[in-house]
């Protein structure tokens, strides 16, 4: 008997407040959430962040032997565990007993190490935010669907390393630029998109201008697609269907993990 093809999530997953609340309790309270790169603290040594509804303060201090130590404080007194990769990417977990980082993101360190990225040769440039009338999964679905198209981050055939970080983030490393994306869930039907941009220290102003132009163009395009899908969910004209096991493998993996974590069929 042939195995049934995986099917995409039903519309209720993108509109239902009870499901959204369940995701907050299960996914976002137990996952390792990407925050930033420590390059952002190179000058100020301190950074304020909002992560999944929690206000965090990241700080770099020196111990008695002159070694730098990174600490994180949660403004509302929440439980917090910090993990930093060898490439200085920062993740937090709000669970009292989190899954070990190396288990949650199997192979991530090796994958990031394969990129041409030595933090000492890079600098933080800026961040920007976009309000979106979408469920957070709408944007992550779109990112996962583009993962095999050769146009991740909308930068055409530019060579680089693209890593989707479950549940709500992605890192794209190019020869002279890095973009980090975070989709911050605000309600069942609204989100805030955050983009952090870094450049190689030797990158020219022309490179910087061209990268921002391309990045903003693809964010606008992806947001238009995601908001169009969201309108269909809310109007009730979305029908679940079979997902292609190869061309939509990224979507299958992402949505299957969401289902498993929340515990709903």
Automatic annotation (TrEMBL):
This is Choline monooxygenase, chloroplastic. GO terms for molecular function: 2 iron, 2 sulfur cluster binding; choline monooxygenase activity; iron ion binding. One of its GO terms (biological process) is glycine betaine biosynthetic process from choline. Its EC number is 1.14.15.7. Catalyzes the first step of the osmoprotectant glycine betaine synthesis. It holds the Pfam family Ring_hydroxyl_A. Residues 161-260 form the Aromatic-ring-hydroxylating dioxygenase alpha subunit C-terminal domain. Belongs to the choline monooxygenase family. It is an enzyme of class 1 (oxidoreductase). InterPro entries: Rieske_2Fe-2S_sf (IPR036922), Ring_hydroxy_dOase_asu_C_dom (IPR015879), Rng_hydr_dOase-A (IPR001663). It catalyses: choline + 2 reduced [2Fe-2S]-[ferredoxin] + O2 + 2 H(+) = betaine aldehyde hydrate + 2 oxidized [2Fe-2S]-[ferredoxin] + H2O. Its cofactor is Fe cation. It comes from Gonapodya prolifera (strain JEL478) (Monoblepharis prolifera). Pathway: Amine and polyamine biosynthesis; betaine biosynthesis via choline pathway; betaine aldehyde from choline (monooxygenase route): step 1/1.
């Amino acid at each position: 008997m042939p195995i049934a093809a995986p099917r995409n999530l039903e519309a209720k997953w993108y509109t239902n407040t009870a499901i959204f609340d369940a995701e907050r309790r299960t996914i976002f309270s137990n996952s390792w959430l990407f925050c930033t790169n420590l390059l952002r603290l190179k000058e100020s040594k301190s950074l304020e962040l909002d992560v999944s509804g929690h206000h965090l303060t990241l700080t770099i201090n020196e111990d008695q032997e002159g070694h730098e130590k990174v600490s994180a404080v949660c403004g509302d007194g929440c439980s917090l565990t910090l993990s930093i990769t060898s490439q200085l990417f920062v993740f937090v977990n709000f669970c009292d007993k989190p899954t070990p980082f190396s288990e949650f993101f199997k192979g991530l360190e090796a994958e990031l190490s394969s990129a041409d990225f030595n933090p000492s040769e890079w600098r933080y440039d800026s961040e920007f935010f976009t309000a979106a009338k979408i469920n957070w999964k709408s944007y992550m679905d779109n990112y996962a669907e583009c993962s095999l198209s050769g146009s991740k981050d909308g930068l055409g055939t530019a060579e680089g390393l693209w890593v989707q970080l479950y549940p709500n983030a992605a890192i794209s490393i190019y020869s002279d630029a890095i973009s980090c994306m975070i989709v911050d869930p605000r309600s069942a039907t609204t989100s805030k998109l955050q983009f952090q941009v870094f450049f190689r220290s030797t990158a020219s102003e022309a490179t910087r201008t061209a990268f921002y132009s391309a990045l903003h163009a693809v964010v606008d395009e992806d947001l238009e697609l995601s908001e169009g899908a969201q309108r269909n969910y809310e109007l009730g004209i979305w029908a679940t269907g079979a997902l292609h096991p190869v061309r939509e493998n990224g979507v299958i993996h992402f949505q299957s993990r969401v289902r498993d974590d929340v515990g709903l069929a």
